[in-house]
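Worked example

This section walks through a single chain of length 429. The input is the sequence exactly as stored; nothing has been trimmed or padded.
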Amino acid sequence: MKKTTFLIILLFYTALLNAQDYQISFTGSGASTTVETVFVENLTQGTTRVLAGSDILHLVGTVGIQSHSNTNENLSIYPNPMQETSKLEFHSEKPDNVKIEVFDMNGKLIANYSGDVSIGINVVDISGFPEGFYTARITTSAWQKTTVFVSLNDAVKSPAIRVGSNTIPDSKVKNSIKSTKSIVEMQYNYGDNLLFKGISGDYARILTIIPTQTQTIDFEFVECTDLDGNNYSVVTIGNQTWMAENLKYLPYVVGPGMGSPAYRFYYVYDYVGTNVTEAKATANYNTYGVLYNWTAALNGSASSAANPSGVQGICPTGWHLPSDAEWTELTDYLGGGIGAGGKLKETGTTHWNSPNTEATNETGFTALPGGFRYPEGTFNQIGNYGYWWSATEPTCTDGWNRAMSYTSNNVFRLNYPKEFGFSIRCVRD
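Given that input, the structure is written out below as tokens.
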């Protein structure tokens, strides 16, 4: 009997984990405290949403009971699973009487409460429920809603429902919030990895999380603007903050037939002219940025093997060209070069060719396959490979770089002649 009960609880628990109900709100810090726009991508499912910075993202699971669809009367419980205490949160349009009931998996009433609630968001503490699966039902004069939760509490305590001081019905505050916030729903399964890109004017910050509760996400905005006025998204991975896009600074441009390790050359994939305005109008420039020979990347600086490199090179002010050691720090943080590529590559096959092996972009780095300029005077491998320079030279003729492939989840450490045209990602000082 115990084994059967355990299996039933396990099945319900598994279903619940695929049916979480979380709300995500947003704040800004650093260079700006205002969040204007938030782009959300479910990296696991490949779905997206666009929100105003004042909106609330409502992550809705595939399993659950909802008998009322009005988002202003949304019912959520967090944390879920609960240890000792969780909170039930719901919205009431008017002063009302509420009835709260909690049932076990056999339908037995375990705890209940009846009382008054106020206009706005009401928060109720529930605690002391023994380990198991439960259904919570809230009934008012206007609606009834039901949600499910799991308790992991193995201590013997008495279940309790408390409202009192935990009700926050300030109608003036809540009506103000209600007038400025919208709730945007997005389907979410427990364990899905979400990428958030917060925008504030010229600033953009990327982060990735696997939500496990209702929470507020803070975007720490930092400036990353090149001499052409291009602004870049940034992402923090471990102790490093990287550009989350390829550099686009383009002081002049030449076709692939021109090249030398002694001079600075700038290329845009498949562009064969010398008109900067035309080159910047191409899709390849806007997607993949510029390809630089190593001399252009260093921009007159000497090679550096230090961490940090101390070489600004062609990077924006406050940023620098990563050394070979800094690239190694990145891949070591991700478990080593074997497997790190999948964590860094953009997902899907919009830019990477199929199969884009094991690409999860769980870091938010969003590596793209910009190809390269070959010393013989051709462009090659766009869609298949991405190559990025470091600030370190193994010999006077070569530079260390990192590469990623559409058929591998690895990051490759390579050295190529300085005439090659590769992409650039910069690191914050």
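What to look for: The CA atoms of residues 232 and 243 lie 6 Å apart.
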